[in-house]
């Protein structure tokens, strides 16, 4: 059986109403909205480790641990929420490792952040509006 046929048969098992009920429910939109946390944590991996809050990172690790368990045990199982919190927990664990290394351990140099940033390039004066050239 081809992959396309398997996918088609999976989606054909459910009616249009069942899919609409799912996509219009909090079971779908809650996890979608929650994806902002792991996306922000993954983007923060390239920022200065001095800016990391150990307390907040620990709280977010605990939060994601609790909601991973919830997403797994709720009926029906919410795999979208589970994946969101697995990703967030992993990103926050990386942030905590960076925090501990920067403030206490000093074992490795942070591979994501370089303290020596290139200087910003100045804007050409002809790109400024006429009022700013006064």
TrEMBL record:
Belongs to the mitochondrial pyruvate carrier (MPC) (TC 2.A.105) family. Keywords: Membrane, Mitochondrion, Mitochondrion inner membrane, Transmembrane, Transmembrane helix, Transport. It comes from Panagrolaimus superbus. Mediates the uptake of pyruvate into mitochondria. One of its GO terms (cellular component) is mitochondrial inner membrane. This is Mitochondrial pyruvate carrier. It is a multi-pass membrane protein. The chain crosses the membrane at residues 52-72. It is found in: Mitochondrion inner membrane. GO terms for biological process: pyruvate import into mitochondria. The keyword Transmembrane helix applies. Its main location: mitochondrion.
């Amino acid at each position: 059986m081809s992959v396309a046929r398997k996918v088609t048969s999976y989606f054909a098992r459910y009616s249009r109403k069942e899919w609409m009920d799912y996509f219009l429910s909090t079971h779908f939109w809650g996890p979608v909205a929650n994806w902002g946390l792991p996306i922000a944590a993954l983007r923060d991996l390239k920022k200065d480790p001095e800016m990391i809050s150990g307390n907040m990172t620990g709280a977010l690790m605990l939060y994601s641990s609790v909601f991973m368990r919830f997403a797994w045990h709720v009926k029906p199982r919410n795999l979208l929420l589970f994946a969101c919190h697995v990703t967030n927990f992993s990103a926050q664990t990386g942030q905590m490792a960076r925090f501990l290394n920067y403030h206490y351990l000093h074992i490795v140099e942070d591979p994501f952040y370089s303290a020596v940033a290139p200087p910003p390039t100045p804007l050409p004066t002809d790109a400024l509006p006429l009022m700013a050239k006064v």
